[in-house]
Each structure stands twice: as structure tokens, then as C-alpha cells.
Amino acid sequence: MRITITIEKKPGVLDPEAQAINKALSSLGFDDLQNVTMGKQITVSIDTDNKEHARYRAAKMCESLLANTAIESYTIEINEPS
Predict the structure, then answer these.
(1) I need a surface site. Which of 5, 29, 30, 61 has the fewest CB within 10 A?
(2) What is the pTM of this model?
(3) Count of alpha carbons within 13 Å of 7, Cβ hemisphere only?
(4) pLDDT tens digits for 6-58?
């Protein structure tokens, strides 16, 4: 199974990189922006046909290494092979 993990800062957490992007885009004329957030996306493949097992393994990866759960949240998307 192919798994896409998206990690973003939790609401209220300072995000200087997103602030810099917002400022740069505004200076380029994109002044109608409401909110800019910065995150990361990680794609992994797990050798299983069980969606719940794949989701469990991905969550364990996030909790163990990929996300700083004190300041970041994550979502997991399971994509079955075509």
C-alpha cells in the first residue's frame, strides 16, 4: 500500500517559514492571501493488503519520528495500488 502522510503545524504554533512565504508573496502582488501554512508530505509504501495495519504502521512512524506531536499534527491517506 502506498501511504501519504501530511504533517502541519498545529494552530497557534509560530511558523516563521510560512510567515516569510506570506510576506514574499504579498510583495509580489498576491495581497489577497488569508492564511499561509507550511508543512511536509512524506510518501511511503508498506508491503500489506490490510488498510488498518498500514494506517497503524504509518501512525507509529509519525509518533516515533516523523512528527513532533507537541507542535505538529498529521494526517494519513491510504492509497491502494492500482
Answers:
(1) 29
(2) 0.86
(3) 17
(4) 999 999 999 999 999 999 999 999 999 988 999 999 999 999 999 999 999 99
The stretches of the chain forming alpha helices (DSSP H) are 16-27, 51-61
Q: What are phi and psi of 47, to 5 degrees?
A: -80, 80
Residue 80 pLDDT exceeds 90: no
Q: What share of the chain is helix, strand, coil (3-state, %, to 5)?
A: 35, 30, 40
What grid cell was written down for 53? 495495519
Domains in the chain, CATH or no CATH each: 2-79 (3.30.1280.10)
- Cα–Cα distance, 82 to 79 (Å, whole number): 9
